[in-house]
Amino acid sequence: MKYLTFIAATLSFVSAASLGFGADVQPLKALYITGGCCHDYTKQKLIISEGVSARANVTWEIVQEGGNATKHRVSLYEKPGWSKGYDIVVHNECFADIEDPAFIENVLAEHRNGTPAVVIHCTMHTFRSLKTDDWREFLGVKTTHHGPQHPLDVRNLKAESPIMQGFPEVWTTINEELYAIDKVFPTATVLASAMEKKQDKATGKWVDTTKDNPVVWVNQYGKGRVLGTTLAHNNVTMQNTNYMNMMARGILWACDKLDEKGQPKPGYGPAKSAQ
Ligand SMILES: [Zn+2]
Predict the structure, then answer these.
(1) How far is the CA of 152 from the centre of ligand 1 (A)?
(2) Is the pTM of this model over 0.70?
(3) Spacing, Cα 196 to ligand 1 middle (Å)
(4) Is 206 inside a domain boundary?
């Protein structure tokens, strides 16, 4: 019992009851798809997978393809039923210059039919060349660009949401990309936002404009739940406890394994606590 108390206190993320002890509970199987332009995807796949598994009973299969290309077609997406056998797909990819509707529809169909998803950062600009908003309806938002990096004051807009439990009222990041959100689709609910800033030429300080942009949201896409965040370009932002707690809770929520208080449902806390 002493050990249990220690674990719960250390993580402060999970109650003892939710640790991964459940005899009949299988870990959530996550498929993590990554690759493409402009980001440290080799390091980020470890930050996300290790960070989430320290907080929730999740195992990972990771697909990294395409190098730094903007046009690579992830080979798995060509297969019908490509997400079968997985409880959730985490997209952290950056392939902006693909515009093939049939290829993209094969990605979308899985999620519309119920496979939960997490969409991270440049995934919002993936398939940007597609002429329609089909991909954006899945994401929950429309965005096409971002401004210069500056510290973001990320404001928690839904403190009552299970996903945002423990998230501060305001979290100020290091210099980060802020994606300009042109539209939030009616199926989406914004959980956090950050104000675009302008640098004052005289003082060098970054000052708020009036353009507020969603940075964390949830979306319902057909039968599939989606958690979206335009954070984080930089690894340091991703490694932050606020980010990782939100990510782990969001994954559990998308799989319907998060309770109303933001705790993993029984058996879905971190599996390594059972060792
Ligand atoms: Zn970026």
Answers:
(1) 14
(2) yes
(3) 16
(4) no
Q: Is the pLDDT of residue 155 over 90?
A: yes
Domain assignment of residue 85, yes or no: yes
Q: What's the per-residue H, E or C state across the chain?
A: CHHHHHHHHHHCCCCHHHCCCCCCCCCEEEEEEEEECCCCHHHHHHHHHHHHHCCCCEEEEEEECCCCCCCCCCHHHHCCCCCCCCCEEEEEEECCCCCCHHHHHHHHHHHHCCCCEEEEHHHHHCCCCCCCCHHHHHHCEEEEEECCCEEEEEEECCCCCHHHCCCCCEEEEEEECCEEEEEECCCEEEEEEEEEEEECCCCCCEEEEEEEEEEEEEEEECCEEEEEECCCCCHHHHHCHHHHHHHHHHHHHHCCCECCCCCECCCCCCHHHHC
Q: How many domains does the chain fold into?
A: 1
CATH number at residue 19: 3.40.50.880
Ligand 1 centroid to residue 250 C-alpha, Å: 21
Condensed to tens digits (0 to 9), the pLDDT of residues 228-245 reads: 999 999 999 999 999 999
Q: Is residue 120 part of a domain?
A: yes
Full domain range(s) for residue 102: 2-144+213-274
Instruction: Please tell me the distance between residue 75's alpha carbon and the centre of ligand 1 in angstroms.
Output: 23
Within-domain flag for 230 = yes
